[in-house]
Design brief:
- The chain contains 21 helices and 14 strands.
- It has 521 residues and is α/β, with parallel strands linked by helices.
- It has two domains: 3-238, Rossmann fold; 251-517, P-loop containing nucleotide triphosphate hydrolases (Rossmann fold), CATH 3.40.50.
- The strands form two sheets. A seven-stranded parallel sheet has the order 3-4-2-5-6-1-7, with helices on both faces. The chain has a seven-stranded parallel sheet with strand order 10-11-9-12-13-8-14, with helices on both faces.
């Protein structure tokens, strides 16, 4: 586009957002027919009709519906309604979402489904595929997009196209991260844009700024003080309570207190003191302190979860570490294994979460007699017909009555899989500060499609008087803040502590951790 066209488009952005309340939407009662005229075959829910009607006003919007509410269907509907002639579509999404996008286009459009191309195999091949006339829809992963952003920009410059960002909270770092920076570079080029996320602000309201700026790059008035009100005008959301009535589909979140064993407690106190010593002499506003505390919290999480995770780190306390490891598995691991066996004995499948790959693999080995399999970043995505792919493992968990346990890493598995038809109990061995991963991972077993009356149990294995207390407190704060901004009370579910017979680390997390190291928390 010429500078004149870009200026005109920029001006239109401002007009659209300022006058959006006056722009006519397609009425809900006319939407289904309007889409069917475009070849759309799916019957929309009342929430989807409401959401798509609001999105139909302008070619820029956001859907923040919870997982399972049909965000992809809303996105496809938005594209069909707003595209002109042969305009194309690029979807930037996690690699593990490719098959979901392909399936949803097939379901929504059946025989009229467009030819979809995955942009992979390097820049030379991607450039050939992009400029080929045979494809209308392109899927590209975040990692590949960062490497190919200049080619994508060139394509958008020459071809009127839409861009949809799936899991848009991944750009929340803005110019501080490669993802945020590279996505902002193309913000002025698409003729239509939609962002999608069930958890758009995992850290706080500032997460919304880069997402809003992608939609409206020329709005110079955007700030942390007004982003909530501005984005409210253009986003839609189906809440969990709209999707699953809590009376019909109850979810129970319980916190199971599991103390450290004695050698583990001794090691924890030594490392806590050592991490505090490292912070001495560093100013509170120094980025070096923030990075240091980020490493400190991971070490404390490792001690609480499984001391043997520290072996690779050349610890300063080899004797204390040896004692903790020789004592045997941590109480968290022992409890999780015992609980999994109890559930399996009753014929129930269980999903076990840990942020540490070594834990994932270790628990899988211990529970191999229950058919345990695992998914983490080292497990390739692919077809459910290929051996040892994540899709094959998920299929076996669904189909094999002798496979009672799936162990997973939230960073690799918190999105893109559904286990709710066969599994109703999950156990968290450990959690990090990443609220998006926690919320998304819970939705793997509590989502649309459950049989009415099914109770879902989310069990958090929690060590009192440890880093777990801080993680728990900060996750609740982040989730409650998101509930307030999105006006979604169904997010507010505080765990109930029972008696026994990921990463997302930010400045506020660092402040609380520093107090913990000093013994004030």
């Amino acid at each position: 586009p010429t500078a004149k066209v870009l200026f005109s488009t920029s001006r239109q952005y401002r007009l659209d957002i300022n006058n959006i309340e006056d722009i006519k939407a397609i009425p809900e009662n006319e939407l289904q027919f309007a889409l069917e005229k475009l070849g759309f075959k799916r019957k929309l829910t009342k929430e989807q009709l409401r959401n798509i009607s609001k999105l139909s006003r302008i070619p820029f919007g956001a859907t923040f519906s919870v997982p399972g509410a049909g965000k992809t269907t809303e996105a496809i509907s938005f594209f069909l309604l707003k595209r002109v002639l042969n305009q194309k579509l690029i979807v930037i999404c996690p690699k593990n979402a490719f098959s979901a996008w392909e399936e949803q286009f097939e379901i929504c459009l059946k025989e009229a489904s467009p030819v979809i191309k995955r942009l992979t195999q390097g820049n030379e091949k991607i450039e050939i595929d992009l400029f080929s006339e045979q494809y209308e829809i392109f899927l590209i992963s975040y990692q590949q997009y960062i490497r190919s952003s200049s080619i994508i920009a060139s394509f958008l410059h020459k071809n009127q196209s839409f861009v949809i960002i799936d899991e848009s909270h991944r750009m929340k770092g803005g110019n501080k991260t490669d993802t945020g920076r590279q996505i902002q570079k193309i913000a002025h080029l698409p003729v239509g844009k939609l962002i999608m996320s069930g958890t758009p602000m995992p850290q706080g309201e500032s997460d919304l700024l880069p997402q809003y700026s992608f939609l409206f790059p020329s709005d110079g008035s955007i700030s942390i003080n007004n982003v909530k009100e501005k984005i409210k005008k253009i986003y839609v959301r189906t809440t969990k309570n709209e999707l699953l009535d809590p009376h019909d589909f109850p979810v129970k979140i319980i916190r199971t207190p599991i103390p450290l064993h004695e050698p583990q407690k001794k090691l924890y106190d030594l490392i806590r003191s050592e991490e505090l010593r490292k912070t001495s002499g560093i100013g509170n506003n120094d980025r070096k302190l923030f990075r240091l505390l980020g490493r400190s919290y991971l070490r404390l999480l490792q001690v609480v979860s499984n001391p043997s995770l520290l072996i690779k780190l050349s610890p300063n306390f080899p004797d204390a570490l040896r004692e903790a490891i020789e004592y045997g598995d941590s109480n968290k691991i022992k409890y999780t294994v015992l609980k999994a066996r109890q559930l399996a004995k009753n014929g129930k499948k269980v999903l076990i979460w840990s942020g540490f790959v070594e834990n994932v693999e270790s628990i899988t080995t211990i529970l191999s007699d229950l058919g345990a399999r695992c998914i983490h970043g080292g497990v390739e995505a692919g077809s459910d017909e290929e051996e040892n792919t994540r899709e094959r493992i998920v299929k076996e968990f669904h189909d094999d009555p002798k496979m009672f346990v799936l162990v997973a890493n939230p960073a690799a598995c918190s999105e893109g899989i559904s286990l709710h038809t066969v599994c109703h109990h999950s156990i968290y061995v450990d959690r990090n500060y990443n609220a998006a991963q926690f919320l998304q991972s819970m939705d793997r077993i509590h989502r649309l499609g459950l049989i009415k009356g099914t109770e879902t149990t989310i069990e958090i294995v929690h060590t009192p008087d440890s880093i777990d207390d801080l993680v728990d407190m900060r996750l609740l704060e982040k989730i409650n803040r998101m509930a307030e901004v999105l006006e979604d009370e169904s997010l507010r579910k505080e765990p109930v502590t029972v008696e026994l017979d990921e990463d997302g680390f930010d400045e506020e997390d660092a402040k609380q951790l520093l107090k913990h190291l000093k013994g004030l928390l």
